Amino acid sequence: MNKPQVPDFLKNIRVVLARPNHPGNIGSAARAMKTMGLTRLYLVEPKVFPSEEADTLASGAVDVLQTATVVPTLAAALADVTVACALTSRRRELTTPLSIPRETTPELIARAREGEQVALVFGNETFGLSIEEVEQCNRLVTIPGNPDYFSLNLAMAVQVMTYELFSHTGVNVDYLKPDGNSATQGEVDGMVDHLDATLEDIGYYRRRNSERMIRRLRTMFHRAGLLREEIDILRGFYKQAQRLAGKGQGSTPDVEDDSTS
Amino acid sequence: MNKPQVPDFLKNIRVVLARPNHPGNIGSAARAMKTMGLTRLYLVEPKVFPSEEADTLASGAVDVLQTATVVPTLAAALADVTVACALTSRRRELTTPLSIPRETTPELIARAREGEQVALVFGNETFGLSIEEVEQCNRLVTIPGNPDYFSLNLAMAVQVMTYELFSHTGVNVDYLKPDGNSATQGEVDGMVDHLDATLEDIGYYRRRNSERMIRRLRTMFHRAGLLREEIDILRGFYKQAQRLAGKGQGSTPDVEDDSTS
């Protein structure tokens, strides 16, 4: 399976950092964004920018810093935006709807896909977003977490929010899966029948409840999600046991010689 | 609404860091865990521990470091565990099932709720998990992200995975919502009827298609998710406009005097 592409519409979603104090956080935020396919960073009145520290923490995401837009006000960062989400973890006496990332994200993705500009707005490390900044946004988003210790730092919040966004793009990790060869129910049943015959042949069933036993094993093997190669290995093993017992040749017609025997 | 409690069963889910190199990452991971209600940290052969750097980066989560368990092998960290998830971002030629956090998490929560011990296993910062380490786990979990730049650092991966876990606990952020007073459809309709009368009274409808206009406004107000207080403000405004036009007294029987008039 080929490596999937990051969807193009993610370029319509920007991250806005309002008045960030620490250059390191700008770098870490850039890195977090890029891991989740976002590239457009807006910085409102950054205390220090550009900086070596930001570049260092951005690691392979220095390109995000190099193309970042520095603006003097939040309004400037949001001028062409239709939906601006204020990330906040405080109770606010505002009538702007409050939701969690998982609820908000599908709408953001849909709007970005239509070509609308969407912003995720994060406040200063110490003070968060001011009331004036929040009022310029039309959504409040709160990341759920431990009510007694909610201490997500800035870059962590960017990471969680962008992860949530990315998880709704439909880009999956299937390209990392090895080429599986799942066995069918029929193949599993054939293998269990072979096991049943083997247990009989080698005398394991004597004075035991063979029916109950094989039923349990059948359930176990059906649950295990077997691959075809594993079935081959198991059947090779059974065949060998049958041979040692002087049985089995021709007794299970669906068994073929294979390399494991 | 009261602040919710972190569910007790989260204590059955541990984070295992295998051979972490950088003390700072141990501290950041502890902080990430605690923000999502996890407290049990296992460290397999940490290069440096305890350390001042870890304590500094743990911020308010030093208690997680103080109660951390240091073990010499991954096996020791997993001895009493039923489900161990190996966090990995590489393609592995293994038949262990690979899934994303959102797929895996409901099962982990269900098992922890039943009292089983669950582990999230993270590898070394540079090398990830070794093949021997992955083989001791019965799940592979990959965080989805940019296929061309997948550079989540250790603490970020812990943050994303524990966020995903927490999001399935049912602990929500409703306690942060202001006490809303959503208007009913009937209240919205009453307000729009009042607006309709007002527009008539002040002569705004002359030579305009009043029916089409009020229909559009009605749709807009129904969409806006109005609160009761907002309806009071609007009706106060309409009443004042009606008075200026020498109209309105008694003409809209459902309007009552209120503080805004």
From TrEMBL, chains A, B:
Principal location: cytoplasm
UniProt signal peptide: none
E.C. numbers: 2.1.1.200
Localization per record: Cytoplasm
GO annotation terms (biological process): methylation
Substrates-to-products reaction catalysed: uridine(32) in tRNA + S-adenosyl-L-methionine = 2'-O-methyluridine(32) in tRNA + S-adenosyl-L-homocysteine + H(+); cytidine(32) in tRNA + S-adenosyl-L-methionine = 2'-O-methylcytidine(32) in tRNA + S-adenosyl-L-homocysteine + H(+)
Function: Catalyzes the formation of 2'O-methylated cytidine (Cm32) or 2'O-methylated uridine (Um32) at position 32 in tRNA.
Protein name per the record: tRNA (cytidine/uridine-2'-O-)-methyltransferase TrmJ
Protein source organism: Vogesella amnigena
